[in-house]
Amino acid sequence: MKLKIMSQRNAENASKYLTEKTSIISIVGLDDENAHFFNNPNLDKIFRMRFYDLESDFKIDNVKYRAPIQSDFNGLKKFIDSLDCDTLIVHCGAGQSRSAGVAAAINEYLNLGYDIFGDKRYSPNGTVYKCCLNELGIAKSKDYFEEVFNASPQIDVYVSNDEIDER
Predict the structure, then answer these.
(1) What is the domain range of residue 86?
(2) For burial by CB atoms within 10 Å, which of 42, 85, 91, 137 has the most?
(3) Where are the beta strands (DSSP E) in 76-134?
(4) 21 near 86, Cβ under 8 Å?
């Protein structure tokens, strides 16, 4: 399976031109509108996730933003295990942090061999990565996270998750 990380805009555009069976993991913020994909016969399944691109809670002008928590990732393993596609697109707003964290965990789970942490285009969100690993049943030590991210990701915050959207 090919694993592609991209921005929401690029994923929406790519959905028009899919030439092989493709599934999408679509990540948007809690207040953002869902991504819109073209009705393409090669678009198999869409798994929608909602969380902000934060490592920990954040407050500005008396508005509190919640980082992802474990329950945001409920259903991800079931979705990944159900895939029968040639390509998996993982997108978030910019295609650099949230999507890279999800893709890095999926890469490990499926042993795909991509070097997402070594690719300078991406800066995987550590909290997202850790929550994905937990959902996929992959254990990593606290030392591992401190080495990779120079800090332990926080996961004691808020979540939201949409159901699998099968086409």
Answers:
(1) 2-162
(2) 91
(3) 87-92
(4) yes
Q: In the predicted model, what is the mean pLDDT of residues 101-114?
A: 96
Other beta carbons within 10 angstroms of residue 154's beta carbon come to 16
Residue 40's CATH number: 3.90.190.10
Give the whole-angstrom CA distance, residue 17 versus residue 105: 27
CA distance 37 to 31: 19
Query: Measured between alpha carbons, how far is 142 from 65 in angstroms, rounded to an integer?
Result: 25
Query: Model confidence at 18, in pLDDT bands (50, 70, 90)?
Result: very high
167 domain-assigned: no
- 166: β partners: 45
For residue 159, is pLDDT > 60? no
Count the domains in the chain: 1
- Per-residue pLDDT of 128-156, as tens digits, reads 999 999 999 999 888 888 888 775 444 43
Tell me the whole-structure pTM to 2 decimals. 0.87
β pairing state of 22-28 and 43-50 = parallel
